Amino acid sequence: MQLPSQRRRRYLAAVLSVFALVSAVLAATPAQADFGRPAEPASKIEPGVFDPDAVKDSADFWVRFSSSARTTSATAIEDWTERGQFVVDQLKATADQSQAAVRKLLDERGIGYQAHWITNAILVQDGSRALAEELAALDGVEQIRAPRTYELPEPVDAKPSSGMGTNAVEWGVANINADDVWSQFGVQGEGVVVANIDSGVDYDHPALVGQYRGNEGGSFDHNYNWFDATGSSDTPFDGAGNSHGTHTMGTMVGDDGAANQIGVAPGATWIAANGCNTCSDADLIESGEWMLEPTDLNGDNPDVSMRPHIVNNSWGSIIPSNDPFMEDILIEWADSGIFGVWSNGNSGSACETSGSPGSRTINYSVGAYDVNNNIAGFSGRGPGQDGEIKPSISAPGVNVRSSVNGGGYGSLSGTSMAAPHTAGAIALLWSAAPALVGDIEGTRALLNDTAIDVENLQCGGTADDNNVWGEGRLDALALLEAAPTGETGTLSGTVTAAGAPVDGATVTVAGPIERETTTAADGTYSLVLTAGEYDVTVSAFGYETATSTATVTADGTTTHDVPLEPATSHPVTGTVTDALSGAPVAGATVSIDGAPVEPVTTGANGTYAFAAVPAGSYELTADGGQCTTALTQALTVSGPSTLNFALPKRTDGYGYFCTTGPSDYVEGTDLVALTGDESTATVALPFDFPFYGDSYDTAYLSSNGHVNFVAPVTNYTNTALPNAAAPNATLAPFWDDLHIQAGGGVYTGAVDGGFVIEYRNISFFNVANLRIDFSVTLHEDGTVTYAYRNLDPAQARELGNSATVGIENAAGNDALQYSFNAAALSDDTAITFALPPNGFVTGTVTDANDDLPIDGATVAAVAPDGTVVRQTSTDANGDYSMQLFFGAYTVQASSGGYETGSEDVLINQDGEVNTVDYALRTGIAVVESDELSWTITEGQTRSGEVTITNAGSADLAWEASEVDRGSGRQTAPTPALMGSSKVDPNATNALGTYSKEQLADLAARDMAPTAPGDVLAEWEAAGVSVAWGVGFDGDVWVSDPDAITNHQYSVEGEPGEVFPGNWGGVWNGDMALDASSGAMCQVNVGGDNAIHCFDTGDGTEQYVISGSPWNGISQRGLAYNPVDDVFYIGGWNEGIIYTVAGQSHADPGATLAQCETEDVSIAGLAYNPTADVLWMVNSSLTTFIYQIDPSDCATISTIEFPEQGSGPGAGLEMNATGELWATSQLTNTAYLIDTGVPNASDVPWLTEDPSSGTLAPGESVTVTVTADSTGLEPNLYEATLTIATDAGRVPNHQIPVSLLVPAYQVGVNAGGAAYTDGDQDVWRADKQYTAGTWGWVGQRVEVSSTNRAIGGTDDDALFQNRRSGIFSYRFDNVPAGTYEVELGFAEFQANMLPGRRVFDVSVNGDYVLVNHDVAAEVRGLWADQHTIVVEHDGGALNVQFHDRFGYQLPIVNALRVTDRPDL
User: Fold this and answer.
1) How many domains are contained in the chain?
2) Where is the secretion signal located (predicted)?
């Protein structure tokens, strides 16, 4: 089904750039508004102007005209008003002339429109498709475009503060030394007018009202001072909830005259336009037009003299872009003397993340850094347009405090906050050096030259000018110190050669200050300089450099003409070859960098020639096209010169390179069932196709011009390669938004040594009149060829200006991209992707002990210099295959716990296959243990033994460690939260499960946390659209459900690996480390709803755990219990946490237990094995972290989440010491949170001797495990003893340990003396009762004994004495509680018949044994043992033995009463 067009385009959003720390939901952005001048529009009517699904075939649209005014000469006009008026007059005259025919047609037909002159365009209102086609056919009409409406984001990191000042300048103002400028130069921006195009300004704010130009003392005049693009208010206002415009204006000029010194230039005055209240392209253009020629409130009586000197623009595209929106407006501003400042965008920290318009070459853009002079993670990086260094400069932009609506103050972060620092610094400069007012190039040069250099070559550049910092940190003091701020004069003149003017000559002066400029077309130059003596150097291509001196006098003009002498010229020739093959490269372009010489092209033999190059030093660049890397070399010309180039091939990480040449186009023969829009087809390949080291037998074809080998994917939105998001294992011959319509189709067929997939007569979506042919040929050796036919060189769309062309591996982390959104293709050409000559190493890795395969073993090919050149992992069968280029390698096989295997391999024949198998040795730990469970009173010790035997083939290292179970819980209760109904089973937050009434109630609650919650660390999860699931393995892992990827970060937030997380579901949820295998496991939300575990080294899936009933619906949270090898999984669809069996269980995935949480909105989970508690974060308007008992899901305590709002709660995981890593899906922030519950690893009452060692094969060791109850309070103490080994198969063995310390215990050897049994428990000698103690009470009581062996026990002596008669045992002063009463009986006659001795036993009057017949139960000479649990109210505890008439009297051999606080 065809989607509406507005959902099908790739969009840019022009929005306020405070979105550095803005909700990730803004990643879905609207379309770009492009009013630049594209050289080759794909069609005059832009796709998407008319919605094919709309009720009527009409729409608003822009008509753009090709004519442009010539306004550059305005820069020579000194008078401010005359200069501006000249620019406006030229623009209006050009618009009137070029738009006349269109205006007339629209007027005659009564069609509404709005004409503009600052950009040569008309906005037509509700025009029909037929009208658009008619207008497009008119001469001078360049393009018909759709209008755009942009969103205004809400910053979520806004931090309000009180109205109280800081009694000091704000940190950003001081950081750029603006306060030093105030004191040393005595200026604060006086005489300069600043403006912003933003969301508006709270004009009567105490820190702004005094600087408002419309403030006339007792009244306000808003004419020429305020432009409301919405047309709703004649009084300035800020329409943004985040006070964005008020905040940026405060940073430029704010000062309340008291303690709130928030502005850089508080002496300047301000005006404003709220073009980004709506952020529609029409409002932004109207605002830009008003800035050049302000009007009264009615839009009448324009006056260019009222235009501002500086305009701050803290907005731009969210998605990194070089889109030329507003570029023509910026040109006209500059020509009129207005300095435009731009934020550089907040899509960092990756390279090429600068946002338009800041990314454009002509715009001066600003990056952001923090109070510690560290670049902000969100600050956009370059390069920008055509490789331009971006940002231009950097300024304070993190936690910047400034004015907000309502007279208050607050802190925001973003490059939006950095730009007004720069605008304010320019105001200081122009106030102190009026000669620079309107000198845009001179001001930019001073800003660049005086910035504090900061080296960061992450994205290219140099130490003093790079794509992270630009020219460096803004320094307002250095800026003014370098400016002509004292007595000034003018140095001007003409540069000539043989009497003719020299255009573009560089004039450099050095003296009291240093300046540089270039000559105009008439050879003239002019510089305003501080009075004094100067050295003047003039250079120009083709001429000898001239040096001279000149004197500049105050308030005077010094004329200094410079004649240049021609330099001697010589021919420069050379040859361009392929560095790999040595073959000549035809069609390569060779250029002389920075010289006004037309580039030359190599011929068929690779040669080039420049006929005449003046003597001098140059850099020449040879560019052989998309498949080679351009090469720049230095050359000094002093005579005929030769410079050859050997161009290196562009390769990806795997080794693929590409070549281009004429197309031998082959058509397919078999029609594939692939038609329409957004469709896929599956094709079986006739051979196994090798690609990036894997082998594939099935191809998945998309209607959008891409083929992959993983799964059916349509994806019309092309991206740059590589990209972890689907499709992966991709062939992209022409990935664009395509449409297979009637007359077009996809065909396949066999070719010699290969298989062709041909896309024939394919159109673009919504552009049916453009048709192209292209094909993919898969060769059996893994080579791929793309061929192209019927590409119109006049149609940039057909040449790929909105397409991706290239190949990509299965992980989405390696690719060879030929082009991305560039018209780089040509008709009848072919692109071949191939590998250097290579062979294969294959084999199987097994365990030397059992000969079974080792799954997930790492096999690496190591070059002689130690570099790992290729690495792979074995599959479930232990098999591997690795493709290697010619050379000698050491191939190593390794797996955790195994000795590494190593073999030398030589690859020197193309296609050869070497088989190398490995049998890796490892130890095997056989662990046998006594039952480590004791009941002893305080002050005693007990010991048991654990025997470890190495039954393997390699040495076995082992270590005993302990984990305390069941201590450390907190005990505070938590209020109950509301239940939910079930809505979207796959949503990323639970808010949809609440009713409006429930949400309102939740939002109104004031819930206090009951546990620690200090944030110990926080950082932005760079590179994700939405931060959700969390895992921890020493590094922090964060899932991105939008891109379906998993991202690795250091604990400081430095980005690492990025792996696909697409397990076949809707998105990838919470994570937990399976300590038994080392794999990171993750909830698959949707699809199979299972737990998928992957290798954190390469992202490959290792195993899947699934089971019923928990996989019947989407879950969210995941935690792992390493002691019991179980997972805890749950989500808000049910509000249930399931305990699920892990890998070591007989039935992995089986549900072992389940319980319901008090708060059902379960998001992330984590487990603390020391305290035996679960942590859970909810998804709600009131977000908390709950401490939960995993046995019944009862809430123990709560911790307040660091953020509140629309469901920030997402993933959760514990680190090694008990703190929690959590993410906010609203701000993409990762938090480390103190829980107050440590994850201890030492059990104070438990010791092992020895505690570690190494066993040779066949050796054993006996470990004595001792429990010591000294100092312990009565309680049950539990621990887990782990024998951790380096065995390959089963490295860890857990042994449960328990110690019961009762408050009361008395054991009696009835009828006998004191006795210590085999467990070292003491049984006291029998005695008669005395008050206050214990003993027997009765009549007809006697004692008997035997020396015969008693079966059924190892403690015969305990059963060889007994008491008989009518009696009881009384125990005085027994505390209240639960007690275990143990009774032991034995008949001394081997042939004792049943029915001869029958009796009853009661405890505290309650019968516990009735009609008890020892002989009937166990026969004679055999121990009959019974344990009874009773509740005791305190005081005397009586055990009564009741005789029965006609039977022998009752007996008892052993009796013990033990307090059991654990029962």
Assistant:
1) 9
2) 1-27
